[in-house]
Amino acid sequence: MSMEYRHVKIKDLKIGQNAPVRVESMLKEPLSAYNEALGQCKALQDAGCELLRVAFPHADLKGELSQLNIDLDIPVMADIHFDPDLAIAAIDAGCPAIRINPGNMPPFKLQKLIEVALERDIVIRVGANSGSINYRQLLEAQGDRALALVIAVEEQLNLLLKENFGRIILSAKSTDVKETVRANLMLSEKYPHFPLHIGITEAGPGMTGLVRSAAGIGLMLAQGVGNTIRVSLTDDPVAEVEAGYEILRSLGLREHGVHLISCPTCGRRRINVASIVERIKPFLKDFPDGLTVAVMGCEVNGPQEAKSADIGIAGSPSGMILFTKGHVVGECSLDEMPHKLVLLVESLKKNREIDK
After folding, report:
1. By three-state DSSP, how is residue 104 classified?
2. Burial 115-130 (b: 16+ CB within 10 A, else e)
3. Does the structure show a pLDDT above 70 at 355?
4. Among 194, 211, 299, 341, which residue has the fewest nearby CB atoms (within 10 Å)?
């Protein structure tokens, strides 16, 4: 088949080629608890999630999956294991994309699914992970688990290509950062015409999961590898979306929400930086995307080291100062500070110094 597939579209969401790196997450509530599931989906949608993967373990949940596709504005990708008939049921329920796992999806059972996906312009993600590599794949790779992941992806990729199916996203994940990076670099080099979904699977809770995910995803993105990302955390999925955008922002790839910077503090600090950060967070959601806000402990770290910030707060001998791009523009008390920040943002908008 022709190899012109350098991007795919899931509904109106373009993935690959010159599209932005997309941020996705996965529903953690079961579809059977529909109200709770929908609430979590809405929260993810509000946080900026662009593609939502949903576990679809049995056909009895087809009605709930269908309703979810009606109730959400963002596209849903059904996560399918073992049974390709479930993938067809998910397509019937309105899912524009499905994910299949090469480790547990028998190739000889995929023919009907491919036919349906071709007829309805469905996107298929071939998503291998380290936990589902089989003995034969590992043997073929001579024990190289990164290569075994690539082999697992290739087996189903070749099957799809043989049937002239090209609306494909590739994915190879491991809990091991170096293993995942190597696998994706191999896939990117060998199959540059297919978008790649990247992440570190089962990264863990809290700080562990965040650091492991940022290290792995950051290494891949910095080398131009990856078109969609998921930060897999043992946490509220909204935290996954927020972390995803923070990784992209840190690499200069996307701006979503406010870029909040703050000093680590030292013996010079004149204000409680941590408490002020928490106090202003609720206001930041209404500030323009890409705005840099700084909270600094003293006049040294304030207008000086944070002079690139659009707006900032810093401790001073007399209390707190407000600054923009390194220039002091006023003083305020702790109680006045949130309101004065809002006024400062509005003033910058009015003078077109920041985008609205």
Report:
1. coil
2. ebbeeeebbbbbbbbb
3. no
4. 211
d(CA 74, CA 317): 50
Interior/surface letters 298-332, b for 16+ CB within 10 angstroms, e for the rest: bbebbbebbeebbbbbbbbeeebbbbbbeeebeeb
**Was 332 annotated as part of a binding site?**
no
pTM (whole model) above 0.85: yes
The reply to whether 298 sits in an annotated binding site is yes
Could you say which of 3.30.420.40, 3.40.50.720, 3.20.20.20, 2.40.10.10 is the CATH number of the domain covering 7-250?
Answer: 3.20.20.20
Query: What residue segments make up the domains of the chain, in order of their start?
Result: 7-250, 259-350
Q: Return the closest-CA partner of residue 333 out of 315, 319, 313.
A: 319
For residues 16 and 227, is the Cβ–Cβ distance under 8 A?
A: yes
The answer as to CATH 3.30.413.10 being correct for domain 259-350 is yes
Q: What is the DSSP letter of 301?
A: I
Average pLDDT over every residue of 44-59: 97
263 is in an annotated binding site: yes
Structure tokens at 333: 């008390």
